[in-house]
Amino acid sequence: MSNIGKEFLEKTKYEYRGKSDQEKGVERPPLELEYDRTRPVIDLPSPAGFIPPDNRLRQLIDQRRSIRQYSDDPLSLEELSYLLWCTQGVQGMKDTEATATFRTVPSAGARHAFETLLLVNNVDGLEPGLYRFLALDHKLTKLDSAPDLADQLVDAAFNQRMIKNASVTFFWVAVTKRMTWRYDVRGYRFLFLDAGHVGQNLYLAAESIGAGTCAIAAYDDNRTNRILGLDGEEQFVIYLSPVGKK
Ligand SMILES: Cc1cc2nc3c(=O)[nH]c(=O)nc-3n(C[C@H](O)[C@H](O)[C@H](O)COP(=O)(O)O)c2cc1C
Fold it and tell me: What is the domain-level CATH number for residue 103?
């Protein structure tokens, strides 16, 4: 078989599924990656009381388009908090042992294998830089503030300048073990399926606050992963989306 796409489909069919780590009794990976707890953690406004200006789902679905140009108006921290909640917000635990989370998006087996990194360019109350969303606590932690980070990430995405012109760009990172622990190689399919749900929620949520987004899958994997400090195998960027006011 010479076509890697077809080979991927073939070899991830159920009949090829090996014994998963879960079936082998390997310990479940944690629900979230560790982070440097000596760094300050930034509280986000609670999304519970945030009602978007436009709350009409039918209308939002109809209105949605990929938006690649944004105004200079910043996003507020409330709006960013709401977008994070819509894309990866944790609503509760599956059981008292906290073995899995339920979130605002579906995920195969409730594995929820993504971490969200944010390139913040223009959000009220946040210094520009790279942040990580701590979904379990609904907080942010800052990872990097190198001034040329946005330019590097634009460059790695074949000069798609919207990554820098947006108020914030979401980078979803797949933590493969969290999915393959249960599903073995077939889990790779589920990572890509899960990313679609997250991306679409961002489209609709952005629309509901007078903002726009554009899914991006055209980027140099190795360079983007390297810039973000990811090994590209255990953790890799699966999808990205800049968001800005229209
Ligand atoms: C998986 C995926 C990858 C995409 N990658 C890019 C991209 O790298 N750059 C870009 O400008 N648009 C990208 N888009 C946006 C599409 O071009 C857009 O959805 C399409 O033209 C239809 O327009 P609409 O979203 O306004 O309906 C992507 C969309 C999807 C779903």
Answer: 3.40.109.10
pLDDT tens for each residue of 47-72: 999 999 999 999 999 999 999 999 99
Residue 8: strand, helix, or coil? helix
Distance CA 47, CA 45 (A): 6
User: Of 102, 67, 94, 110, which is closest to residue 211 (Cα–Cα)?
Assistant: 67
Check if the beta carbon of residue 173 is closer than 8 Å to that of residue 230.
yes
Judge contact between 44 and 81, C-beta under 8 A: yes
Query: Nearest residue CA, atom 13 of ligand 1?
Result: 216
Range of the domain at 91: 39-245
pLDDT for 186-202, tens place per residue?
Answer: 999 999 999 999 999 99
Residue 21 included in any domain: no
Number of domains in the chain: 1
- Distance from the alpha carbon of residue 30 to the mean position of ligand 1, in angstroms: 32
Is 154 inside a domain boundary?
A: yes
Ligand 1 center–CA 44 separation, angstroms: 29
pTM above 0.85, yes or no: yes
